[in-house]
UniProtKB/TrEMBL annotation:
Residues 24-274 form the EAL domain. The keyword Membrane applies. The keyword Transit peptide does not apply. This is EAL domain-containing protein. Signal peptide: none annotated. GO terms for biological process: signal transduction. Keywords: Membrane, Transmembrane, Transmembrane helix. GO terms for cellular component: membrane.
């Protein structure tokens, strides 16, 4: 009887599993096609320097506008692209496009590009970054590469070597979403990062009941003592901004300043925040 019931329940779930599998296959097919056709776009979110009181750069964020489903979050399609091995060509497209677009911005503005763990451990990464810089003419010092903690844990030895190679091209390297992974504060010391990005989950709680201000303070203190810049992500309120200023955070990024915008809106943002009158070619 138990067997019959089990079989019954299995049959009950079957159509649903089929539908999920089917949806995934379709998404896979569409993603492959989109990578081949390069039908993606980069949006840019300003990074605001609290010491200079101006926008010092933009983070490039990948956008996929699916023909039927509309906009799909990178949180959904990046893991799929990693599984399918598509993240290498896709990541190289992002690198080329971001460097090319940034090369038209006023000098001094940096572009931050997210690098997935799969890309980071690929032998092609250095060549791809070097090519993107050479073709665009963007000086390496204007490129920042954002890497998440998962990379460190997987392979600490090769991570250090890779970070040094990237820095050898003049680029800077940032630890993204710090605090969400497994690494401890002191672990960070062993890697030559230029910047720590404090994850938005810690910023969100600033000034709330379960204030995680002590974590933010510890990360900013560590950053200062290691000579690393600290950037707070996901800043949405004036109260959070005031706290971050008070703690001596160097840079902030979040909806309070701007959502990620298409490249065409960058001149307007720069006029608003930096008083840049200069047009971008
Ligand atoms: P991330 O690198 O930590 O990027 C920050 C994310 O926070 C972005 O989400 C951004 O839109 C969002 N955000 C910015 N300010 C605020 C705010 O004030 N409040 C809230 N709630 N969110 C804010 P997005 O664009 O959906 O990207 C999600 C993640 O997908 C990124 O997290 C990054 O890990 C990944 N990703 C995006 N573009 C790329 C890419 O080109 N390559 C790779 N490998 N990963 C990418
Ligand atoms: Mg990032
Ligand atoms: Mg982040
Ligand atoms: Mg994040």
């Amino acid at each position: 009887r138990a067997k019959a019931e089990a079989r019954g329940s299995f049959r009950f779930f079957e159509p649903e599993m089929d539908a999920r599998l089917q949806a995934r296959r379709l998404l896979e097919r569409d993603l492959r096609e989109a990578v081949t056709a390069e039908s993606f776009e980069l949006h840019y979110q300003p990074i605001y320097d609290l010491n200079a009181e101006r926008v010092c750069g933009f983070e490039a964020l990948l956008r996929w506008n699916h023909p039927e489903r509309g906009r799909i979050s990178p949180a959904e399609f990046i893991p799929l692209a990693e599984e399918l091995g598509l993240i290498i060509p896709l990541g190289e497209w992002v690198m080329r496009r971001a460097c090319q677009e940034a090369s038209r911005w006023p000098d001094g503005l940096k572009v931050a590009v997210n690098v997935s763990a799969v890309q980071f451990t690929s032998a092609r990464l250095i060549g791809a970054v070097r090519d993107a810089l050479a073709v665009s003419g963007l000086p390496g010092r204007r490129l920042e590469l954002e890497i998440t903690e998962s990379v460190l844990v997987a392979n600490p030895g090769t991570t250090t070597a890779m970070l040094h190679s990237l820095k050898g091209l003049g680029a800077r390297v940032s630890m993204d979403d710090f605090g969400t992974g497994y690494s401890s504060l002191s672990y960070l010391r062993s890697f030559p990062f230029d910047k720590i990005k404090i994850d938005q989950s810690f910023v969100r709680d600033l000034g709330q009941a379960d204030d995680s201000g002590f974590i933010v303070r510890a990360v900013i203190g560590l950053g200062a003592s290691l000579g690393m810049t600290t950037t707070a992500e996901g800043v949405e309120t004036e109260a959070q901004l005031a706290r971050l200023r008070g703690e001596g955070c160097d840079e902030v990024q979040g909806y309070l300043f701007s959502r990620p915008v298409p490249s065409s809106e960058i001149p307007g943002l720069l006029r608003r925040w930096n008083g840049e009158a200069r047009a971008i070619a």
